[in-house]
Amino acid sequence: MEAQRRQLWFKTARAASVFLLASMCFAILVPIRAQAGPFLRAGSTGESVAIVQEILSGLGYYTGRVDGIFGPLTDKAVRAFQSASGLVPDGIVGPLTWAALERVGEVSRGKTGPLRGRLIVLDAGHGGSEPGAISPWGDKEKDFTLGIALKTRRFLEEMGATVVLTRYGDYPPGSDWGYPVDDLLARASIANSNGADIFVSIHINAYPQDPGVSGVMGFYRRGSSESYALASKIAWAVNASSGLKMIDVQQGPYYVLNRTYMPAALIEVGFMTNRNDVLSLRLGSFQDKVAQGIAAGIVAYFGR
Ligand SMILES: [Zn+2]
To answer: When you count CB atoms within 10 A of the terminal residue's CB, does the N or C end of the chain come out lower?
Structure first.
């Protein structure tokens, strides 16, 4: 018994040191990708900046190219927008400026396409101090979910939908409400108070027991055939667009599914514990494929 336990301890210690070594190597070899921070400002780059530029250009504040680079023109446009909206014109896009951009941005979107007139709430899992699952190589689930949500939003808008995100950066939903609120409650409330047609929550799975496990899973609200249809259409479409193996569609006992009033799905896209999945998820091109799949699944759901 004692010998067995010691052996087990030894195995665990050995595994831990191998893991530690492996993560150290990765930390040195793989530069951590720049992620969308909670605040955008001069010098920021990426998808979130492009969205700000797109909204500001629709409103006439921004006259430059939508290139995802927060340069002097973007800075000027942000300050002008902030002044006009009664915000501090500091050129920094934090939760309050995001909220204001969202409110007015909606007016300029959703003109034509198969999703015209649909209001979709996308929920990027986790955020802020809650990273979600962390890969053995240090990648955080919250960064992948946000990247995919931002990309999905653009595909959906191109097809005419109005899209609201529960968060636009690395902060917990509800952190801009001015009083303490549970982030899960905030996610569901954003969908409910906007009267969303559907709610889609994006996550990456983790299964440390077997790093070989990879694939996509859909979860739906118990007893809702609409939620089942939504989760199933999205999971199959992501399988088709990304090549991720289809695992299955299950009933999920999740707060965001049970506390939303509209058809809701939670999708787990790949595994933080699978090396191939993580390597793929780091690529913008792969996140694009996943996002395209989610958007295609949503179109298929409404087109039934
Ligand atoms: Zn998650």
So the answer is: N
